[in-house]
């Protein structure tokens, strides 16, 4: 474990706390969870398991429990598809709720881009982490980036007093991207292993940057319309 990342597990706790605060409506609805389904529960549990894994893995490395670290890493091969599937199910529920509330179809389909803008970078960064699993320093940094990729939806649900929806969402995206920028600057001056964060930032900035116009394009409207029919 690199000295500068000795306490990285606590960084994951901070990211998780921000996410939990953003989704406080769900957690504060305990124990009745009125308005939520088993899909929401499984979705929440799977993401909590992911953050738990991110917290535990550096601890195992520091304790030199490499075998257990690799075992938990292999479990992620099953957990990630689980996260993806139930995130897509939540997206479908979100769409159907919009239909029931008579949202304009174009707006309803465009709204699906918000969870997609977190899910797609998350999956890409996880794949990059697995591809680089034998390059420990790269692997670790891509794994850190996966947690930051998931921040957008949580931050987006925190009320910062911004009335315009587009501006509020872009502000939430910017705040999550700032974490990557901070890590990138840290790496540039400290360890010089900044390429994973640079690539991670480019991926997140792309999906965040196209938000103001892409969800209303024919391309996204077509893809989203096929998703809600097929899934």
Tags for this entry?
mainly alpha; 11 helices; single chain
Quick structural overview:
The chain has 231 residues and is mainly α.
Task: Furnish the topology, listing elements before pairings.
Blueprint: H1 8-22, H2 24-27, H3 38-62, H4 66-100, H5 105-111, H6 113-131, H7 136-149, H8 151-156, H9 165-189, H10 195-209, H11 218-230
Structure commentary:
The protein has helices at 8-22, 24-27, 38-62, 66-100, 105-111, 113-131, 136-149, 151-156, 165-189, 195-209, 218-230. It is mainly α.
Overall 3D form = globular
- Helix percentage: over 70%
Q: What structural class do helix, strand and pairing data support? A: mainly alpha
Integer average pLDDT: 92
Total beta strand runs:
0
What is the alpha-carbon Rg in Å?
A: 18 Å
State which percent range the strand residues make up. Answer: under 5%
Query: How are helices and strands ordered from N to C?
Result: HHHHHHHHHHH
**In terms of per-residue confidence, which ranges show pLDDT below 50 for 5 or more consecutive residues?**
none
The main pleated sheet reads as: none
